[in-house]
Design a protein that fits this description.
The protein has 173 residues and is mainly alpha-helical. The protein contains six helices and three strands; from the N terminus they run ααβααββαα. A three-stranded antiparallel beta sheet has the order 1-3-2. The longest helix is centred in the first third of the chain and has 29 residues, at 20-48.
Length: 173
């Protein structure tokens, strides 16, 4: 229950409390996002032996030219910290699915490269993952709801990625 004053009655300097409807929407979003991430993570752990975030990294590499990306670009694309990416890539290297290559133009830079074995693992497990996504999200929504969801999430994501200097974004940490 929301015991805070209505958003419209907040005076200057006071929080803009969520209305009862906004609170309902927010909590529904949090619940759905948490359950969806858990559902996809469990599916990939069970079927492919990897967490959802690792699968996402393999996908990003598979979609990149020559199946390779600079580590900084991969962190930005995956929306994760450089430290978390480094740990994930180390685990993927241990599995033989990714290898690192030094960047010839930047001594500090490295590339993550999807190996043939990593591509094969991704190809083998993509159908099951797509099925899990389809059942969890798209089969439950009308085409109009799908379009609205995409537009809403794009607006939210764009608003959370400031382009100015000093932005506090995961891949910059």
């Amino acid at each position: 229950m929301n015991t805070a004053p209505a958003a419209s009655s907040a005076s200057a300097g006071e929080p803009r409390w969520l209305t009862d409807e906004e609170q309902r929407v927010w909590r529904s979003y949090i619940e759905a996002a948490t359950l969806l991430e858990d559902h996809l993570d469990r599916q990939l752990q069970r079927d492919a032996g990897m967490p959802h975030v690792y699968y996402g990294l393999l996908v990003k590499l598979a979609e990149s030219p020559h199946r390779r990306l600079r580590m900084t670009e991969l962190a930005m694309s995956a929306k994760i910290t450089r430290s978390r990416l480094s740990h994930a890539v180390a685990r993927l290297e241990k599995s033989g699915w990714v290898r690192r290559e030094d960047c010839p133009s930047d001594k500090r830079g490295q590339f993550a490269v999807l190996t043939d074995e990593g591509m094969e693992v991704l190809s083998r497990h993509a159908p099951g993952h797509v099925d899990a996504v389809r059942q969890a999200v798209f089969d439950r929504l009308t085409p109009e709801q799908q379009k609205s969801l995409g537009e809403i999430m794009r607006i939210v994501a764009e608003g959370l990625q400031p382009s100015g200097a000093g932005a506090d974004l995961p891949w910059l940490r």
